[in-house]
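Supplementary Methods, section 5.1.

A reviewer requested that the exact input to the structure prediction be made available. We therefore reproduce it here, unchanged from the version used in the analyses.
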Amino acid sequence: MLPIALALFAALHARPGDAAPAPAAGVREEALRHYLAGRWLERSGDRSGALAEYSRALTESPEDAGVLLRLAELATHDGQPLRTIEYADRVLSRDTTSARAHWLRGAALFQLRRPEESLAALERAVTQAPEDPEMLRTLVRVAESLDRADRAAAGYVTLSRIAPDDAEAWFQRATSEARSGRFALADSLLARSLALDPIRPGAIVLRAWIHEGLGRFDDAIADYREHLRVHGGDDPTRRRVVVLLARAGRVEESLALAREVVRDAPRDPEALQVLADLAYTRGATREGEDALRRMRETDPTDARWVTRSLQILARHGRRREGLALADGWLARHAGEPDALIMAARAHASFGDAAGAVKLAQQAVAAAPDSLPAQRLLARVLEDAGRSADAERELRAMRAKHPTDAMLMLDLGALLERRGDVDGAVAAGRDALALAPRSPEVNNFLGYLLADRGRDLEEAHALIRVALEADPDNGAYLDSLGWVLYRLGRLEEARQLLERALMLTGGDPVIHEHLGDVFAALRQAERAREQYQLSLAGDARNARVRDKLRGSR
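The structure derived from this sequence is encoded token-by-token as follows.
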């Protein structure tokens, strides 16, 4: 047996991470001897010997918390979660405030793939020991596994305070802030993380994303390319660089990289789609046609690739090719409702309103109970200048489907375009009564109120509900930015609208909204730039042209 004084010295000089309560005062001396011998052997690396000594100590003092916790920790390290829980429960049966017992129990439950129970136990541990970084790290890992992003983010905030040298805590805080669109704060947090751990995996990609959010596209491109020098096969990142190069006006570089991606993945329909879009932008019509053909040939039976081809052709004004493609697909799928719907949409997008109405009517006749066909018919009737007929269609559909909130939104949007704002608001409120948590409904009504300068605080609350459900939705962020603009909170509006532009890839309406914010901030040059970008995406917008003239 080791001398008790020597064993006591070993226990007192154990590593902080291995610390555990010593046996309670008043236990038998023999139990204390075995416990201290176990600590000495454990520190020396003799785990089996330590386990034997702890077991002897437990025989002498069966309910001692210090001994039970050491046995629980050894069971954890040995991959025996059920034994860990057994020992931890024996401690908790006498002391429900034991943070270490709750922590060990929570970790063992996670090993047993019971994450909800694990998180509850870890929450109790952290409540008892809020300044213990090891317990907090375990909690945030479990919270992340459950997609409890808010809880994990809060944990990393606390962890960065109590363990300021923890690079991972700063990194995760930066990630969380970037996801919330607070890119300037994310940038400073990431800088702190990199100062502690300059080679942390994923840091370059996060920095690139932050630079995107801050509008530093050249810096983002440089970061992504640095990442690609090590991970050259990361196709999603290469595609992101393609998009950023295009947005930065570096079309030649973007097209060259898109060709590389397609060369490495010649049957990847997504890559071919991007190449086609860029080729048409550059004026390389034949290359664009070839890329679209190859995209469709990856699966000639899949209507998705026909639909995407039509979208690209419409975007670049290729009316003849687009109509030929849509009509050819319809000829091969004669009478099929989905083919009729696709053809009707194509004719509408290429300006053939009368043809779109005829095809939509055929789709409704082929599938009388198809809501998509009926909703499309209402839309193309409006496009053809028959808004009264469109309204009748929507009201008839509402009578058949009184609980469909989306039909109410269609009716509300139509009434707004007809100038009946009160009717549109009423339709939005009817939809909200049917679907009070629907992000689409909350955003529709919130944006409608904000756009008309009505009930702005209510509009703000409605849009917040939408963003809680879908925080990275560019349209919802635009709505929130717009209501903040109406409330005079211009700097907040600017940040949100810039993030919305990043997420949507440059929506003309969002460019207009951002131009209005810059105009209110008396930054005339930046306002003009946004109005010009808006017109580049929608040259027919007379309202924006008037704003551009007024900003000179």
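The CA atoms of residues 341 and 412 lie 23 Å apart. These observations are discussed further in the main text.
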